Amino acid sequence: MPLKTLLFNRGVFVENTKNIGWIGIAYFLSLFFAVPLQILMIYTRDNYYRSYTLVADNLFRLSDGFQLILLSVIPVLLALVLFRYVHVKLSTDYIHSLPIKREALYHQHVLFGLGVLVIPVFFIGLILLIISSFIELPHLLSLADIATWMGSTILFTVFIFMAAVFVAMFTGMSVLQGVLTYILMFFPAGLSMLLLMNVKYSFYGIAVDYHLSQKIEKLIPFVRASQLGFDALTGKEIFMYFLFIVVFYGVALIAYRKRKVELASQAIAFKSLEPVFLYGVTFCAMLLGGLYFGETQNSTSWLLFGYVFASIIGYFVALMIVEKSWRVLTKWKGYGTYALSICVLAIAFQFDITGFEKRIPAVEDIERIYFAPSFYLMDGYDYYIEEEYFTQNYYYQDEQNKENIVALHEQIIKNQNSIEKGGWERRQFAIAYELTSGKHLVRHYQVPVTFLEEHKDLYGAIIESDEHKYNVNSVLRITDTNIVDKITIISNRGTQQVSLTNHSDISEFHQILQTEIMEETYDDLMDDRSVWSNIEYLLSDDKRVFSSWKKSYDQIEAWLQERDLVKQARLTADDIHFAVIVKRDERHLYEYMRYEKDILNFEKIPGSIRIEEYDELEECLIASSWNDSGKYVIAYYYEKDTFSPLFETIDDQHVPEFIREKLN
User: Rounded distance, CA 82 to CA 76, Å?
Assistant: First the structure.
C-alpha cells in the first residue's frame, strides 16, 4: 500500500492522461507510418518495382530521417509538457500545495512519461510480428530484428527523456529547458572538439585530427542514433546509456526535492549553479571565438582578439539570462576574475609544465612507429584491407628507421621557432609511437620543405629505405605475375590508354616498375611534378592494385618506346597544338583558370611566349606540374580542342633553358 501511494495518484494520472495522452497517440501513429505502414506499402507494390524500393536491411533504415526526428523531438516535448508546472509560478504553487509528496509527484510523472514512450513501441513491435507472419522478409522482420529495433528505440527515447527531466530540475524556464537539453546532447563532443581545436595553438605537436577521428561523433546521441541503420549498439554503449538514465533519474529526484518553489520562472533554479552557467557559457563562447578568428586569420593577434571579444559577448549574454535584464553592462568584476584565471592558465600552457611538447620515447621502448602524412592510414584503410599486398602500411619496425624517425622528431622539436616561421610549402607528419608497454604517444607536425632539405640525411634515409618503399608501394608485394590478368596505363592528362594482356609483357613491365621504385632517390621522391599516367593492375580475383608512372621513370619510358606505345600511354607533344607560357603573377594565377574571358585571352597576355616546336613542347610536358607553386604558368592547347587549355606550372628547378632565357 505505501508503494502504491508513492507511485500512483489517480487524480494526477487522470490529469496527465487528459493533457498529455495525445503525445502518446501521436507518437504511435507516427511510428506506425514510419515502419509498419511503409513495409505494407512497399510489399503491395509490383514485384519488379518492389525490388528497387525495399533496400532496407533493418528497421531503422525505413523512413530513417523521420524516425530520427521522432526520437529527437518526442522525448524532449514530453518532458517539457510533463514538468511545465515546475516552471510556472501559479502551477507550481498549486501542485505543491496538494497533499502529495514531491517524490510521489516526481515518480508518477516520470513513470507516466516512460509509459508514453514505451507502450507505443511495444504495440508497433506487436504489429510487426503480425506482419511477419504473412510477409516473407527474414532479413527485416525476424524476431531478433524487431527486438533490436524496439530495444534501441526505447533506450534512446528514455535516455533523451531523462536528460530533459534532469535539465528541467535545474532551470525555471521551459524554453531554457528545451534549449539546454539539446545543448547537453551535443556538449561532450562539442566541448571536446572546441578544446582540441584550441589547444593546438598552445601545444606544439598535438594531433588534433587523430583525436577528432576517434569516433568522437558517437558521443552525440542523435548522431549515434542515425548510425543504427548500419552500426548496432555495442554492449558497452547499452550499459553506458542505461547508467546515464539511472544517474539522470537519481540526480533529478534529489534536485526536485531541494529546489525552491519561488524559483519558478528563474533561468537557473539553484543560486549556487549560476556561476557554473555564467562561466561555462563564457568559456565556450571564448573557445568558439578563438577558433573562428584563429582559423580564418591565421594570426596570433586575431586569435587573442577572438578570445577576448567572444568571451565578453558570452559573459554578458549569460549574465542577462541569469538576471533577466539587459542592464548588466556595468558588472565587470566577474569577468575580470574569469579573465585573470584564464591568463594564469594560458601562461602555464606556454611554459609547457607537463612536458608535453618535448616528450619523445627512447628507441628501445618503441615496438613500432606509424609515420605518414596523415592519421587516416593508421589502421591500414584501403579498398581491399583483407589482402596484405593491397594495403598501404605506414608502420616502421626496422631499427635504423626507428632511430632516424626519433632523431627527426627531436630536430622538429629543437627547431620549433624556425619551423613555425618557415616557408608556406610544407609537408605534414603524423607520428604515432606504439610502445612496448602497450601505450601510445601521438604527434602531428607541419614542416617546411626547407627543413627537410636541411635534414636530408635523416628524412632521406627513411624514405629511401626498402621498408618505406614496401610500405607505400603495393606493387612491390606482388611477387607472382601469374595472378595479374591485365595492366592498364591510363594518362591523367588526356584520353590516352594502353593495356598489357600478354603475360610476357606483364612480367617485363612489372619487373621494370619494381626496379624503378626501388631505385628512387630522395630527389625523385620529393619531386612534385605530375605523374605521366596512372597504372592499374587487374588481378585474377577481379581485384585491383594501383601505382603511377612518374616522370623520373626513364626505364618505363624506354620500354614503352621500344614497343611504340608511348603515344598511347601518355600525353605527348603530338597531342598539343601549341602552348603559351608566362611568368607567374600570384595575383592572377587562379583567375587564369577560373574565368572564361581570362582563359580565352591567356595567349594574348603581355610578356607571354608561344611554343610550337615538338621538342620544346615535349620539354615543357616533362617539366610541368599541377602544383600551383611553380614560377611559370603554362597553358597547353590541344590539337583537337584549342578553346580549353590545360593549365599547369613549372618550377624554377625544372624550367627548360629556352624558357628561362626568353622570360628572364
Answer: 10
| CA gap 118, 111 in Å, rounded | 10
How many angstroms separate the CA atoms of 408 and 454, rounded? 11
Backbone torsion region of residue 438, taken as left when φ is above 0, otherwise alpha when ψ lies between -120 and 50, otherwise beta: left
pLDDT 10s digits, 584-628: 765 555 555 555 555 667 777 778 899 999 999 999 999 998 877
Helix (H, G, I), strand (E, B), or coil: what is residue 435? strand
Query: What is the C-alpha to C-alpha distance for residues 622 and 476, in angstroms, rounded to an integer?
Result: 26
DSSP-assigned states of every residue in 518-558: HT--HHHHT--SPPSEEEEEEETTS-EEEEEE-TT-HHHHH
3 state DSSP class of 408: helix
Mean pLDDT check: name the lowest of 208-222, 412-426, 576-590: 576-590
- The pLDDT assigned to 534 comes to 94
More confident residue, 391 or 115: 115
Helix%, strand%, coil% for the chain, nearest 5 = 60, 15, 30
pLDDT digits (tens, 9 = 90+) for 94-108: 777 777 888 888 999
C-alpha of 460 from chain center: 32
Alpha-carbon 513 to chain mean position: 35
Residue 456: which of 406, 417, 404 has the closest Cα? 404
Sign of CA dihedral 411, 414, 418, 422: positive
Task: Report the distance separating Cα 36 and Cα 297, nearest Å.
Answer: 52
User: Are 124 and 32 contacting, i.e. CB atoms less than 8 angstroms apart?
Assistant: yes
Q: What is the DSSP letter of 136?
A: -
Whole-Å CA distances, 457 to 334, 369, 409:
55, 19, 13
Nearest CA to 23 among 83, 86, 79, 74?
74
Nearest residue to 532 via CA among 489, 486, 484: 489
What CA–CA distances, in Å, run from 515 to 392, 498, 509, 643?
Answer: 19, 21, 10, 40
Q: How far is CA 306 from CA 92, 208, 303, 313, 471, in A?
A: 43, 20, 5, 11, 43
101 near 6, Cβ under 8 Å?
Answer: yes
Pair 226, 64: CB distance under 8 Å: yes
Q: What is the mean pLDDT of residues 215-239?
A: 87
Q: Determine how many CB atoms are found less than 10 A away from the CB of residue 49.
A: 10
Helix (H) or strand (E) holding 400: helix 399-414
Amino acid identity, position 376:
Y
Residue 41 to residue 20: CA distance in whole angstroms: 31
What pLDDT was estimated at residue 236? 92
Q: Which residues contact 46 (CB under 8 A, 6 or more apart)?
A: none
Q: Is 65 in contact with 30 (CB distance < 8 Å)?
A: no
For the chain, give the mean pLDDT.
86
- Give, as one character, the DSSP assignment of residue 233: P
